[in-house]
Amino acid sequence: MSPSRTVRLALREVRSFLSSPVGWIILSVFFFVAGLVFVGLLGRYRLAALSMAQNPQLRAGEAGLHVSDWVVRPYLYNLGSVLLFFIPVLTMRSFAEERRGGSLELLLSYPLRGSEIVLGKFLGAVFALLLLLLVLPVHGLVLSWVSPADWTAALAGSLGMLLLGLFMLSLGLLISSLSQSQVEAAVLTLGILLLLGLGPGVAEAASPALARILSFV
């Protein structure tokens, strides 16, 4: 495997993402939705803090009013759910668009191994994912002005978000490589991610064994 060929292909994917209006629309909408989630959680935390300040019986530490519990954890949880809807849009173009446009055969005719093509596509998608996750340090900086948080837990949660995103990217690229169109790739990827995310809870009522399998996956 040649790292230089893989990097060149990854840079080609990065340029394609940054030069496409769709890429900037994805970033803008994701940042907007993440901002709404963050502001909503901060507002809920502020109202809870005001209620505690007005009620002497709730001023004890046992009340559990901590920014990590009220903002950081729900924020990461909700952002993971939001990411589930954006990853299929990021990955649907990777192979399906190349196949539909007839450029996949041209790409395969280059002196590139299959592993180099897959890794180059994956690294390009990882760059797009990192751009999306830039919202995390920005919101972390805003949060530091509001209240001190458990930054160890926040960093661990951010790492978990990155790993979750990498898993979704891998699945999306796999589905894109098997699909004939972008829409097909996006719908199938979203459906499988929803099945993995919601399946255990839905299957619990019908088959606990199936729920345990889905939970394990």
Note down, in words, how this protein is organized.
The protein is an all-alpha fold and 217 residues long. 84% of the residues lie in helices and 0% in strands. It has ten helices and no strands. The chain has helices at residues 3-19, 21-54, 67-91, 96-101, 103-109, 114-132, 135-146, 151-178, 182-206, 208-216.
SS-derived structural category:
mainly alpha
Largest sheet: none
Classify the helix fraction into a percent range. over 70%
What overall geometry do the principal axes of the alpha carbons give?
globular
Summarize the structure.
By secondary structure, this protein is mainly α. It is built from ten helices and no strands.
Task: Tag the structure with descriptive keywords.
217 residues, mainly alpha, single chain
Summarize the SSE layout with pairings:
Layout: H1 3-19, H2 21-54, H3 67-91, H4 96-101, H5 103-109, H6 114-132, H7 135-146, H8 151-178, H9 182-206, H10 208-216
Helix pairs in contact: 1-6, 2-3, 3-8, 3-9, 6-8, 8-9, 9-10
